[in-house]
Design a protein that fits this description.
The complex is a heterodimer of chains A (500) and B (168). With 500 residues, chain A is α+β, with helices and mostly antiparallel strands. Chain A has 16 helices and 21 strands. In chain A, the strands form 4 sheets. Chain A has a 7-stranded antiparallel sheet. A 7-stranded antiparallel sheet of chain A has the order 14-13-12-18-17-16-15. Chain A is globular and about 75 Å long. Chain B is elongated, with a radius of gyration of 21 Å. Classes of the chains: A alpha+beta (500), B alpha+beta (168).
């Protein structure tokens, strides 16, 4: 630890959040208590309009008053090497984050924030995974706090001088590494695999629809909801797939609007977002791995996205803590160059070739995927057999699933592979739905295990699992059915060198 | 390089130490407790089957086989698990190997250890044993059923090697 801190006298605050906080918190409060409003509306339905209006106005005032009190009782301060946030009207809650624990400071600007020129500061901490969010600060407040944290952390005179000229530095965008063009954004939306969340949304909408929409409207639909005929099922499937696709395009636009990646001091800065404008700071030293992800809709055209794994559990997007999109869409052959500029430590040797799995592993991949298919069919057959109204052999309609799954098994075998370059950088490639190629450094490896089932032992195969810091799925690199001697070789090459 | 003899030199030799014999008793006790719970379900299911169907013989024989195999597995599994468990704490790495049907070897560099917990459940306490839970940034690994003194000395050794600052 560096003990040459700046004079302890320097402090920020205590100060309140920007008054706009009351407005956005009020809006949130109203949105969260929609059910309450409906309840009040329904219970006062029979009363005169004035009473109804009064009831709703009273409720609004209550929420406003509560938020106002909250705002009055919320303050933050930075002093003595800690950032403190005090909240709570009656129960006072004080959260203290020591500066050494702060990993990075991200900013988010919601639409309301952008209207008023305010910001949210999310202070991410290491290890414990705690996050301190200061909702709604003015730009000056945010800059002052960020500058303070920066000075406390570095503690170097030159850093202090640089921070004093903080305003100028704010304007300096650093080196731009990537700016997403509108055509890239459209292509990313069209090919993004973000169907999962979209489907969930549709399912929720359908459930909401069946709960809310009165019976008589359903009767006017082109098909009878009770009689789930093959035709109506197919129509429903096609419509939901189309909707999911449209939603996935929309969600890509919302997530990646005006996406830019820049390098500033030793940190990667990402700004992105249509509604919530986010600014994400990833110190290069915290990078654990870089992954190139080729979705099935992108791989044929030679496009991929790039994800970064960082040790913070919260630095990432919602979907996967610790993971962050570095580039939403890029030509595959341009990616090595990007990595060389963004994170040179992860730029592998040019002539590196991926070592495939041994031929004898193929049979195991095919058997495993075929077995999965048969299990699904078995379960479906049992399901239809138990359902007295349907004949049991309906389950056999799923039979084409078996060759399809085996094809998938073959793809998994063909795409799996590994390589280690001259600087002990490990590359592991495998396929889930996307083909994922992950690069990490020996210094980043936390634990490594080799495991062998009795079947693998017979064929001299093994499964290697390399774990990196953090909890994200891509932070675990696993290769199934690689040659045992290759597994031992990888485990040996990734040995941590003794410290001096 | 395909045979085990050629590659044996690559990785350090397999971990040297076995677990304490008490591990078998502890696991056996836990297994039997869990098996007892499952047996309740089996008995309930068999009783239900006898009540609602004519297949009494199937319910009784099926339930019997299930209960017997539960007992046998609970009794003998710890013996196998113990036989295939090895561990060693070297100066640079913690080396674990366990598993009978699927053998897993795990290597944790000492420099990656963040902190160590010593966990003692009621059963372990009864046998005077403790489980060492070793935390890294990527999760945990555990060495079970160590005699308390040994658990403490291993924890101290790893802490010293890893140069962990004792914050608490």
């Amino acid at each position: 630890m560096n003990d040459s801190r700046p004079p302890a006298a320097e402090t920020v605050g205590p100060a309140r959040l920007h008054p706009v906080w009351v407005l956005s918190a009020f809006a949130n409060g109203v949105r969260n208590s929609i059910a309450l409003f409906i309840g009040v509306g329904l219970s006062l339905r029979s009363q005169s309009g004035l009473v109804l209006l009064g009831g709703i106005a009273g409720l609004l005032l209550l929420i406003l008053g509560y938020r106002l009190l909250q705002w009055l009782r919320t303050s933050y301060a930075a002093a003595d090497g800690t950032v403190t946030l005090q909240t709570g009207i009656l129960n006072r809650i004080e959260r203290v984050v020591p500066v050494e624990r702060i990993q990075n400071v991200n900013t988010v600007a919601t639409p309301i924030d952008r209207l008023f020129g305010t910001l949210q500061l999310a202070i991410e901490t290491a290890g414990t995974g705690e996050r301190l969010t200061l909702e709604t600060l003015s730009r000056d407040q945010a800059a002052a706090l960020e500058g303070w944290i920066e000075r406390q952390r570095t503690g170097r005179p030159e850093a202090q001088a640089a921070a004093q000229a903080g305003q100028e530095r704010e304007q300096q965008p650093g080196t731009s590494l990537y700016v997403m063009s509108p055509s890239d954004l459209l292509a990313a939306g069209l090919t993004s695999g973000r169907v999962g969340p979209a489907l969930a949304l549709i399912a929720a909408a359908v459930r909401f629809g069946t709960d809310i929409v009165p019976e008589r409207y359903w009767e006017r639909l082109p098909f009878e909801p009770d009689d789930v005929s093959a035709r109506s099922l197919v129509i429903l499937l096609i419509v939901s797939a189309l909707l999911a696709w449209l939603l996935s395009i929309a969600s890509a636009f919302i997530a990646y609007w005006q996406f830019t990646l820049a390098l500033e001091d030793d940190a990667l800065i990402i700004t992105t977002g249509l509604l919530d404008r986010r600014r994400i700071v990833i110190p290069r030293a915290r990078i654990q791995a870089i992954s190139m992800i080729e979705g099935p809709l992108r791989q044929p055209f030679g496009y991929a996205s790039v994800m970064i794994e960082s040790a913070s559990r919260f630095a990432g997007e919602l979907e996967d803590a610790g993971s962050q999109t570095l580039v939403p869409l890029m030509r595959r052959d341009a990616i090595p160059d990007l990595i060389a500029r963004a994170a040179p430590g992860y730029h592998v040797d040019q002539d590196l070739t991926i070592e495939p799995l041994p031929r004898r592993a193929l049979r195991r991949y095919l058997v495993a995927s075929g077995r999965d298919g048969l299990l699904i069919i078995g379960a479906a057959t049992l399901f239809f057999a138990l359902l007295s109204r349907t004949p049991w052999w309906y389950g056999l309609a799923l039979l084409p699933l078996v060759p399809l799954l085996m094809l998938y098994g073959y793809a998994q075998f063909r795409d799996a592979g590994w390589a280690i370059d001259s600087h002990d950088r490990l590359v592991v490639r495998r396929r889930s739905i996307d083909r994922i190629t992950t690069i990490t450094q020996r210094q980043r490896v936390q634990t490594r295990s080799l495991s062998r089932s009795i079947f693998q032992r017979r064929a001299d195969l093994a499964t290697i699992t390399i774990k990196l810091a953090g909890r994200s799925a891509r932070g675990t690199m696993r290769l199934v059915h690689l040659d045992m001697s290759d597994g031992l070789r990888i485990a040996e090459r990734l040995r941590t060198l003794p410290r001096r | 390089m395909t045979t085990a003899e050629n590659t044996a030199t690559l990785l350090a030799p397999e971990p040297a130490h076995r677990l304490d014999r008490r591990a078998v008793s502890i696991w056996r006790f836990n297994n039997l407790l869990f098996a007892l719970l499952l047996m309740l379900f089996v008995v309930a299911a068999a009783w239900l089957m006898i009540r609602v169907s004519d297949w009494d013989w199937l319910a009784i024989s099926g339930g019997g086989v299930l209960i017997l195999s539960l007992l046998l597995i609970s009794w003998f599994q710890p013996e196998f698990a113990w036989r295939y468990w090895r561990f060693e704490v070297r100066d640079d790495e913690i080396d674990l190997k366990h598993g009978w049907l699927t053998a897993t070897r795990t290597l944790v560099p000492i420099s990656r250890v963040q902190h160590i917990d010593t966990r003692r459940g009621p059963v372990e306490r009864h046998f005077g044993a403790a489980t060492l839970v070793i935390h890294t940034a990527a999760g945990t690994v555990a060495i079970p059923a160590l005699p308390e003194a040994q658990a403490a000395s291993i924890a101290t050794r790893i802490t010293a090697l890893a140069n962990i600052h004792d914050d608490l």
